[in-house]
């Protein structure tokens, strides 16, 4: 059976690990990589969309990152219980026309016994910003 460590029940340390792992995966902008954190029958509510299963996750994320360019995300642990984690997040992106946005939201995550996310409920709002207002730009090395 496929497992995604750390497994529930979560502690402060392992909940923080899950949040950081999710942030890193989403910032890769690799839909296949991101989908592996979810159960094969995962259920999502993302804004006004309802997504079921890994294949739909990959399709959704592929379309998302085709229109949300230079996407950069920051997640923060809000709370956790045995197999649930709540996060706050913000991400920045621009569209094809070069207009920048910051998207704010909250997610509720529920994990199965193998550490795979079986349910993700997301509420997200977008705010137009100027490029000089960005906070999440990738650091130059």
From TrEMBL:
PANTHER family: SLL0781 PROTEIN (PTHR31757:SF0)
Domain of life, per lineage: Bacteria
Name recorded for this polypeptide: Nuclear transport factor 2 family protein
Species, as recorded: Chitinophaga eiseniae
Signal peptide segment: none
